[in-house]
Amino acid sequence: MIDPALAGTGPASTRPFFTLDRTFSYGVALVLVYVGVFAGMFLTRQWFVDAAGQPIAVDFLAFWASGFLTAKHPAAAIYDFAVYHTVEAAALGHGFDGQYPWAYPPMLLLLTTHLAALPYLVAWLIWIVATAACCVAGLRLIVPLRLAVPLALAGPASLWCASVGQNGFLTAGLMAGALGLLERRPWLAGVCFGALTGKPQFGLLVPLFLLVTRHGRAFIAATATTVLLASASALIFGTEVWRAFAASLAGTGGVLLGGGSAWFKLQSCYALIHQLTGSASLALWGHAAVCAVLLAALLRLWTRPAPLAVKSAALVAGAYLFTPYAYVYDAVLLTTGVALLAHDGLARGFLPWDRALLGAAWLAPGLFMALGSRSAPLGCVLILAVALRRGQIIGDARLNCA
């Protein structure tokens, strides 16, 4: 049951500041602001095209150019940074500074190679619209549409994801779909989990979560989907692409653990500790220690008779914190954790400060220019704090609203 006050239909004096209707209105207003910002940047040739009218190279180039490489080269060459940079420049029609390497498992090629059939800027727009729609659809399985739309589109992390054409919307949509379907359609939930292997660093905790929470059918479906996608990519692009992927891991990991494109964009405990100490070894050990504490807290929650939405929200935050490789555009994933706790709050009521903490968690990634590597991990900590507190309260009884 949704509390009438939370839905915005109760007496005005009893309504909280963030009702569903108000949240929808705030979200639409933010999206309009984002559209205005993008339009202004486009008109001043700072986004989409440069001063010469040429398309600007951004992260999306790595996805779009994959079809050009596989059409003219063995797919394994996609893991050769120098070769791929040449292919990207030729496909774009001009040279560019920086690197936009392919750092993903081969199964993601099954999706991205089709983008090359479209002009770069058109493909970029379609990619963002389609993956954002996937995110909204996944969140709609958890919360009402009036909440799913602003959560997916108005979050600051969504702004960064859309601006560079990254795949954060897709990751968040698949995670939301998997967790939203887990109780009702476990086999289909497993398929969504299996599809997440295109971004494997965020699925490290998923098998353990499914086993501990006794969702065996979803575990089987996720495993079968992963094997099927890996086999299909090997059949279509050749087995050499998987050997090249395995060989590239050390080099890619070295680049990422060395700060990648910029330390402040890397949103992980590893990045934060590295910047504080200047030592890669201390950062790795510190990150491992955080993961050990995190895992203990998650196992304690997952083995309690708490609502699945609460356990799932903790999984989302834990999955983000568990990997040393997470960027600000990946923080769209945290929207799924916020949505799951909002679902539990709408069903059972919110505890004092829950709504404020969830709002802060949703907004935190937008502060990465000021907070650097602390912004998204801060959002994760806030989600975990709400989940662990709500996990202590068992049963379906209404909680004390605040």
In short:
This protein is mainly alpha-helical and 402 residues long.
Can you tell me about this structure?
With 402 residues, the chain is mostly helical. It has one domain (31-391). It is built from 21 helices and no strands. Helix 7 (120-140) packs parallel to helix 10. 47% of the residues are buried. The model is unreliable at 1-15 (pLDDT under 50).
Work out the helicity level.
Answer: 55-70%
In whole angstroms, the N-to-C terminal distance is 17 Å
- DSSP summary, beta strand count: 0
Q: Given the structure, what is the number of helices?
A: 21
On the 0-100 scale, what is the average pLDDT? 90
Q: Note the main sheet.
A: none
Secondary structure category? mainly alpha
| Model regions low in confidence, pLDDT < 50 over at least 5 residues | 1-15
**Could you spell the SSE succession in H and E letters?**
HHHHHHHHHHHHHHHHHHHHH
Radius of gyration computed on alpha carbons: 21 Å
* Shape verdict: globular
Indicate how many domains the architecture comprises: 1
